[in-house]
Amino acid sequence: MQRAMRLLEAVAEREHGAPAKQLARDAGLALPTAYHLLRTLVHEGYLRREKGLFFLGEAAERLSSSGAQQKRRSTVGEAMAHWRDALGVPVYFAIYRDGEIEVMCVADSPNTPAVEEWADFRESGHAHAIGQCLLSQLGDEARRDHLDRHPVQSLTPYTVRDDEALLRRLDRIGRMEPVVERQEYALGTVCAAIPITVGTTAGTLAVSLPSHQADRLLPVAHQLQTEIGKLLGTLAISISI
């Protein structure tokens, strides 16, 4: 395995391909050993051979892509954990994909617990700031399609009462304004969500607080908004994964 990895690394370093003899020298292997491993790696799809030169194959590229995605996800998770600790709030990252709300990552802790998902987040987008923020970034037709599939329902006494009231509210939300929700999804909790639009995909970063700390909500949201730009490229790539 170790010798095969050395060969793969040698091929990866040669963008325009290399012959077996060159790769054997690069990897520090005897030529017969290199030939045997190269044939195996070609057979397994990790390398491909063209006109006597070896290149990375689809299997190796998939591994590379998977590793890069994992690294990006790790970077997002680390940033969210940093914001959680610095701001003293749980942080949520969600996107709207294939007609559904998808929470990609949550950074919380025993001292800053996330909101308990007592009603399915995908079906209750009208009630929480994450959903309202994502829906606010959609066109009218897409919003109505979502509400046809996930109609408004009262979760607390503060939840918006019907589709039309929600649509009017969404129309009033400014393009880059934090979307604020107070006890509409869960009693005792307030939430703010910041829009992140990448291409045609709607995304959001959100925070929540106990309702007795509601005065902290907007200052924390604005503080988070100033930090997002540092990670926007990574978040954009994560949205596309």
Tell me what the structure shows.
Keywords: Activator, DNA-binding, Glycerol metabolism, Transcription, Transcription regulation. Pfam families: HTH_IclR (PF09339), IclR_C (PF01614). It comes from Streptomyces phaeolivaceus. One of its GO terms (molecular function) is DNA binding. This is Glycerol operon regulatory protein. The chain has 241 residues and is α+β, with helices and mostly antiparallel strands. It folds into two domains: 1-56, Winged helix-like DNA-binding domain superfamily/Winged helix DNA-binding domain (Arc Repressor Mutant, subunit A, Orthogonal Bundle); 71-239, 2-Layer Sandwich (Beta-Lactamase). Helices cover 46% and strands 20% of the residues. It has nine helices and seven strands, in the order αααββαββαααβββαα. The protein has helices at 2-12, 20-27, 31-43, 58-87, 129-136, 140-149, 163-172, 217-228, 232-240, and strands at residues 47-50, 53-56, 91-97, 100-107, 179-182, 189-198, 201-210. The strands form two sheets. The protein has a five-stranded antiparallel beta sheet, with helices on both faces. A two-stranded antiparallel sheet has the order 1-2. A hairpin with a 6-residue loop joins strand 5 and strand 6 (189-198). Helix 1 packs across helix 2. The radius of gyration is 25 Å and the shape is elongated.
